[in-house]
Every structure is written in C-alpha cells, then in structure tokens.
C-alpha cells in the first residue's frame, strides 16, 4: 500500500430492493481511510438505504461490502459496531428526559461490554472523564447537566455526535448532520466534524443535502441518482459535472 491511501470501506456492486422498489442498483464506492467522504443525491436516490446496508441494518440482495478488508455484508448492526463502525440518524436519538452526561454515559455500549473487548474496558471514572472531554470538544460542557430535551435541535445534534464518539469509532456514518440546524451554527458543526477527523482520527462518510457544507467538508464525493451511482470525484469535479447538475435541477 505504499503511497496509496487504503480504503476503509469498499462497496462493490451492491443492490438492494424493498419489495418492488429498487433502492440501490449495482453501487460501488470506496471510502478512503482517515478522510471525509461525501454522499449526495436528490431525495429518494438511495443514500440512506446504502448507509443502512453498510452498517448491517438490513441484508443486501447482491454485492459485497468490506470493512478494513473484511467482508461484513452478512453481519448485523452490533457486530459491525463492535468492529468500529457506527452511524447517526437524520432525527436525533437521544434520551430527551436525561441530562447530557447521562446520555453520554449510557451510549458507551458494545465495546465495553463485549467479552471480546475485555482489554478495552473502561471504569466509571474514565467514562465520566471522557464524557466531559467530548462534551467540551463539541461545545456543550457548560450544559452537561441540562436535560437534553431542553437543548436546541442543533445542540442535540452535537450531543448525538459526541455520544457516537464515546464509542471511539474508527468510522462514523453521518446522515445529514446539518439538517434542521440554524445556518449560523452550521459552521461550528463543520469545524467539529473536521476536528474529529483530524484530531481524533475518525474517518467520516457523510450524507449531506447542503452543497456548501459538503463541498467545504469532503475531499471526495459520490453522487447517487435513482438508486445508481452517477459520479464520484472531488468537490470541484462534481460541482462542474453536468450529470450531477442535471440530477439536482431535475429533482428540485
Ligand atoms: N423501508 C422501506 N420500505 C420501502 N421502500 C423504501 C424503504 N426505505 C426506502 N424506501 C424507498 O427506497 C428509495 C430510496 O430511499 P432512501 O431513503 O434510501 O433515499 P435517500 O436518498 O436517503 O432519500 P432522502 O434524501 O429523502 O433521505 C425511495 O424510493 C424510498 O421510497
């Protein structure tokens, strides 16, 4: 692998249908290790379906998905999470009646309870310390004892991001991290995502509708349309690709 970036995720020829709806057709995408990769496409183009297939939420009809070289397409969510790959959702999944610290602590799961990860076990003190450090990282330290349902939607998204980081993932799949967030807070979120990538070494694979955000964030972007891969390239290449422009203009 000299001089080349390894791919942490390799999707090859993946198809997935729901009954009569062909949501993904023969999709091949690489996610390079240590980078931020984007996934764009009009509504209903199959982005969330691909994420669900990668993290083991449902079986695929055909094709192959490799994580760090290992075939994972027959594994389910907890097995894949244990390998170090997690996702977040368009809607936040926090416990809104609990405070931020409690949400952070209960989000530590698989790694620490798995008999296979016995050496990764962290004691309560360590977990509390890590929760505080990550809440500081996302700018929520001052609000750590507030009931999380009282946070703004943008702050809840930051909390959910911090909760995912509690599991020390190798790869995080983020489904529209900026959706519903006040435009003035978006820059702060972009900055946090970049820092998680650079400082914590987390590879990010990001679905994003906001073009400005994804162009600013990702080194490489793939575009889906009608369940198929339309194009892959740098932000500049995609911005100037007539097929991508058409897919968006045609869809909106
Ligand atoms: N559980 C499901 N059952 C049946 N059809 C589904 C299911 N989930 C998605 N679909 C269909 O599969 C296609 C792809 O949907 P998907 O949610 O993957 O697209 P998307 O690009 O993530 O869309 P959006 O940007 O709106 O989130 C759509 O036609 C959708 O209606």
Query: What ligands can be seen in this structure?
Result: adenosine-5'-triphosphate
Supply Rg. 18 Å
| Spatial gap, N to C terminus | 42 Å
* CATH structural fold name of the largest domain: Rossmann fold
Give the number of DSSP strands: 10
What percent strand?
15-25%
**CATH architecture term of the largest domain:** 3-Layer(aba) Sandwich
| Share of helix, binned | 25-40%
The helix-strand sequence is EEEHEEHEHHHHEHEHEEHH
CATH superfamily of the largest domain: P-loop containing nucleotide triphosphate hydrolases
Query: So what's the overall shape?
Result: globular
Query: pLDDT below 50 for ≥5 consecutive residues: which ranges?
Result: 113-119
Pfam families: ABC_tran, BCA_ABC_TP_C
Keywords: ATP-binding, Nucleotide-binding, Transport
GO cellular component, one term: plasma membrane
Protein name: Branched-chain amino acid transport system ATP-binding protein
Short synopsis of the structure:
One of its GO terms (cellular component) is plasma membrane. The chain has 252 residues and is of the alpha/beta class.
Overview of the molecule:
This protein is α/β, with parallel strands linked by helices and 252 residues long. It has two domains: 1-84 and 169-252, P-loop containing nucleotide triphosphate hydrolases (Rossmann fold), CATH 3.40.50; 95-168, no CATH class. It has ten helices and ten strands. The protein has a six-stranded mixed β-sheet with strand order 6-7-8-3-9-10, sandwiched between helices. It has a four-stranded antiparallel β-sheet with strand order 2-1-4-5, with helices on one face. β4 and β5 (70-71) form a beta hairpin. The protein is globular and about 50 Å long. Adenosine-5'-triphosphate is lined by residues 18, 21, 23, 41, 43-49. Adenosine-5'-triphosphate binds next to β2 and α1.
């Amino acid at each position: 692998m000299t001089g080349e970036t390894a791919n942490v995720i390799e999707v090859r020829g993946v198809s997935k249908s729901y009954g009569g709806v062909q949501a993904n057709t023969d999709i091949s995408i690489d996610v390079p290790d240590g980078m931020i990769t984007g996934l764009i496409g009009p509504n209903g183009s199959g982005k969330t379906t691909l994420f669900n297939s990668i993290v083991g939420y449902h079986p695929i009809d055909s094709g192959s998905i490799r994580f760090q070289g290992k075939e994972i397409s027959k594994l389910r969510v907890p097995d894949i999470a244990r390998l170090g790959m997690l996702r977040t959702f368009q809607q936040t999944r926090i416990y809104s009646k609990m405070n931020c610290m409690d949400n952070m602590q209960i989000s530590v799961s698989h790694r620490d309870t798995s008999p296979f990860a016995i050496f990764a076990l962290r004691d309560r003190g360590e977990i509390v310390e890590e929760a505080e450090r990550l809440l500081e990282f996302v700018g929520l330290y001052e609000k750590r004892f507030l009931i999380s349902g009282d946070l703004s939607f943008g702050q809840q998204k930051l909390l959910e991001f911090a909760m995912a980081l509690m599991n020390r993932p190798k790869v995080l799949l983020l489904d529209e991290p900026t959706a519903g967030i006040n435009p003035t807070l978006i820059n702060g979120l972009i900055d946090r995502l970049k820092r998680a990538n650079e400082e914590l070494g987390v590879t990010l694979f990001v679905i994003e509708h906001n073009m400005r955000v994804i162009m600013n964030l990702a080194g490489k972007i793939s575009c889906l349309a009608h369940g198929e891969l339309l194009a892959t390239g740098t932000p500049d290449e995609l911005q100037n690709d007539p097929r991508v422009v058409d897919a968006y203009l045609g869809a909106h």
